[in-house]
Amino acid sequence: MYVKFMKINETGNWALDPWMTDKIKAIWGCYVFIPSRRVYCCEMTPSYECHSLPSQVEFIDDDYMSDHEREREEIEISVMEGDSSNEQVSYYHCHSVDAMPSFKLGWFPKGLNGVYRDSGYATHPDIYDPSDERTKIEQLQDEAIEEALEFERTSCI
Q1: Segment 144-156 mean pLDDT
Q2: Radius of gyration for the alpha carbons in the chain, expressed in angstroms and rounded
Q3: How far apart are CA 34 and CA 3, in angstroms?
């Protein structure tokens, strides 16, 4: 089964200390979703159910931040703490996500929103549990999301 990964600029959603925001170019929200799973959140427009991955911080001056490791760590810790207090699932309209640029596997260029596709998730034949109330496809989709979350949390997008 395949999943898609999305990177979207969420800088405007963050309220960090002014000294931090002066050093940040962008904070990118990163998500994984199943493109065939569309949900309707009390509206006519379908949305993707996007599961949160750790946000990425893009600094205005990487050279400066490399020389000021303590400041860099403080900012990254603040963003990590913000991630943990945010919702683990967000919903984005399908048409907005589908309009984003698509990139090759595992690669997001700096400064751009975008999506890439990856496959090979939930391929184990013993995943399906007939006693589970969910359908077989729902179980496979949930397993694919869990595997993708685990893989991406232990590596780097």
Answers
A1: 78
A2: 17
A3: 5
Question: Which residue's entry shows tokens 């694919």?
Answer: 144
Q: Name the pTM for this structure.
A: 0.83
Residue 53: which of 76, 102, 101, 87 has the closest Cα?
A: 87
User: Can you give the residue range of the structural domain that contains 139?
Assistant: 3-154
In order of 18, 95, 97, 148, the CA distances from 107 in angstroms are 31, 22, 17, 15
Question: d(Cα 101, Cα 63) in Å, to the nearest integer?
Answer: 29
Structural domain total, the chain: 1
Residue 95 has pLDDT above 90, yes or no: yes
